[in-house]
UniProtKB/TrEMBL annotation:
Pfam families: Usp (PF00582). Belongs to the universal stress protein A family. It comes from Rhizobium tubonense. Residues 217-278 form the UspA domain. Gene3D superfamilies: 3.40.50.12370. This is Universal stress protein.
Amino acid sequence: MSFKTILSVVGMRQSAADIEIATTLCTELGAHLRLLVVSLEATSPVADYALATSSIWVEERQRNIEKLAAEADSLKESLKRYGISYEVESLWLDSAYADTDIGDYARYSDLVVVGPSLSGDDEELKWHTVNGALFEAMRPVLIVPDKRVPSLKPKTILLAWNSTLEASRGAREGLDIMAGAEVHITLVDPDATCGRNGEEPGADIALYLARHDINATVDRLPSAGRDISDVLNQHAIDISADLIVMGGYGHSRLRERIFGGVTRTMIKTPKLPVLMAR
């Protein structure tokens, strides 16, 4: 799909790279930027023992809200020089409801960008942003690691494929991006079964993409005992991919959190820009 509105979520300690990434993407696509500046705070005290500290908490909250508003005003001024359509909003969030609140904003955007600053001091905000976009708004996220310059008009794309609903959603969201790019449909340890991958794993999705005038190569790779995320990242580097497109959370969030998984690894430590959908 085309991306006409891009939501970039940043914390109070956002880096210049976050702003540069968001504005570059909007300039590239002629898209409108929604910049959401977030202050994430712990849940307010509610028990009886907290009454003595509640006034302190309220005062601290008010100070943070004022700092947040000042930061948003500063960013509004700095964005004027980019010559794009934009709006800047500030949001004080209770961490208990952050997924839902960010999801409310994401519903009115086509893409949610997670910049490198959220992989550092604001990692908690990173997870709330990803979960809010994927689960509360069903919107794709673009996760950008540090020192990477993303493009939504990439030359080479790795499409991670395993014939699941989530992978199909990722491919669908990436159709416009894949048009004109060199696409590598990548399967790790695929099973040739009639019910899932078919007798020739990857052939069905390659035919689907061909009907959208997207020429793709099918790469079937053995894991050789390595994590699937490691195989995907290394293959992306080997083919000089600019972007990885994939589905997210084929397993439940709880299972991913306890046992780990491809989605969690690609979100936590991406090697390249990752477009993820669910």
